Amino acid sequence: MNPLRSLILAAAGNDVIRRAVAAAPVSRDVVRRFVAGESTAEAIGVTRRLVDSGLTVTLDYLGEDTTDEDLADQTVLAYLELLEALRAEGLAGRAEVSVKLTAVGQLLDERLALTNVSRICAAAQESGTTVTLDMEDHTTTDSTLRVLAELRGTWPTVGAVVQAYLRRTVEDCARLAGEGSRVRLCKGAYAEPGEVAYQDKHEVNLSYVRCLNVLLAGDGYPMFATHDPRLVPIVDARAAHHGRKPGSFEFQMLYGIRPDEQRRLAELGHTVRVYVPYGVRWYGYLMRRLAERPANTAFFLRALASRS
Ligand SMILES: Cc1cc2nc3c(=O)[nH]c(=O)nc-3n(C[C@H](O)[C@H](O)[C@H](O)COP(=O)(O)OP(=O)(O)OC[C@H]3O[C@@H](n4cnc5c(N)ncnc54)[C@H](O)[C@@H]3O)c2cc1C
């Protein structure tokens, strides 16, 4: 892995650095590029703007690796408030939610996470929308897929995420590509060891293409989460090859990244979903976005240096 990326991902787990970054006034401006705000109202405002411009949305209430039951409960309550607001604002048809199981107690107890995420799924159904379970580091993959299978027993539209950098993923795609199954394919954002994950970018891209073919050949609803200018046209071409019409798969990109490309794809008739994170616990998320692209890190460091 690129040494800068490893360094930034290591900083993501360092509490001293976290406090320094969170306290820097400039963080606010940088965070705003990637994060919709801290409150439900701000998240709804951004969602409205994106929906009005022809995009769809998945909202993530930021937080992860919770080892505190009360914090897990607060996360559930934040999602319930959000889902009610989406319904009240008439946005539930165009906006769903993404949930990290470690934010609702997975590290404490898988059953607690299942109970908590079930409350979110029930509220989503009541509001007329769906839930996707984000995928986190590889130590959680099996547990997350078990929880997914249980949830799908009651709410078949719950979406899964698979990460192309994991060696196992092409087989997971084959297992998850059944009828009605919503599956997001991404490259993967965590620092993973060579035994479980491809380390070379080219190998990750090849894996992404193998996985997208499996998902497009299946009977599910694939969701292609990538900003990669080489992969987007490959998705398009392979979708045509598999006889997929717009509406039978979608593109997904992160809030603040390649917004022009998001609009371009939507104007071509594709469903494009923007992943919109919000909330006060933005640190880990921001660090992963910076790690993905040296230019983002340089922008952040320059801004810090010019204001301190
Ligand atoms: C909707 C969505 C949901 C996701 N959910 C998960 C999840 O559940 N679990 C998980 O592990 N990961 C998730 N990810 C993150 C994903 O795994 C990657 O880390 C991230 O998307 C970058 O990969 P990429 O495919 O864009 O390709 P990369 O190889 O990282 O980038 C390719 C090109 O895209 C552009 N680009 C990429 N990132 C940036 C950036 N930060 N700023 C500016 N330009 C950029 C650049 O042109 C770059 O050259 C998600 C991503 C998206 C879009």
Automatic annotation (TrEMBL):
Record key words, sorted: FAD, Flavoprotein, Nucleotide-binding, Oxidoreductase, Proline metabolism
Domain Proline dehydrogenase: 47-299
InterPro entries: FAD-linked_oxidoreductase-like (IPR029041), PRODH_bac_arc (IPR008219), Proline_DH_dom (IPR002872), Proline_oxidase (IPR015659)
Coiled-coil positions: none
Pathway(s): Amino-acid degradation; L-proline degradation into L-glutamate; L-glutamate from L-proline: step 1/2
GO biological process, one term: L-proline catabolic process to L-glutamate
The EC number(s) this enzyme carries: 1.5.5.2
Cofactor note: Binds 1 FAD per subunit.
Residue numbers binding FAD: 135, 163, 187-189, 201, 226-227
SUPFAM superfamilies named in the record: FAD-linked oxidoreductase (SSF51730)
Substrates-to-products reaction catalysed: L-proline + a quinone = (S)-1-pyrroline-5-carboxylate + a quinol + H(+)
Cofactor: FAD
GO terms assigned for molecular function: nucleotide binding; proline dehydrogenase activity
Binding residues for substrate: 100, 288-289
Protein name (database record): proline dehydrogenase
Protein source organism: Actinophytocola xinjiangensis
Lineage: Bacteria, Bacillati, Actinomycetota, Actinomycetes, Pseudonocardiales
